[in-house]
Design a protein that fits this description.
Helix content: 25-40%
Largest sheet: 6 strands, antiparallel
Shape: globular
Strand order of the largest sheet: 1-6-2-3-4-5
Amino acid sequence: KAICTDIIARAFTNAGYNLRMLVDKDIKGNFGEYPWELWEVKAADPNIDYRRPENLIIFFQRNAKSLIIDIDPKKSKNLFQWLPGDIIFWDINRNGSVDHCGVLSDRPNKEKIPYVIHNYIEPGYTVEEDVLQKWLVVGHFRFPGK
């Protein structure tokens, strides 16, 4: 069953990167940077670690270009900073946690705000939707980019 992070992994595979290996390598070199207390684990697991949004945002903070998180459809300079393929992270519940992610589409809405390709409980499978502003954006990255 696919989850939101699988969209990121698939996009990376299509671009010629192995996200699982990249995240595992970063974790091995920077174990203390990752939020292991969230899951009460003491060891990395390369089969799971890259599938946790909380780990992925740290990986991108460390290894990608960090971009703006404010969306202003009235300013074209702002919208030009949201490009297809950018990785987005949200705090859906607005409780200080990173709990969802997706990839920007090349398809915009009427206001020129990009759609997002993501997996979510509703509808339960991969979709391309106008949800960029639906939740609190807490991360916006471009890879490679540092």
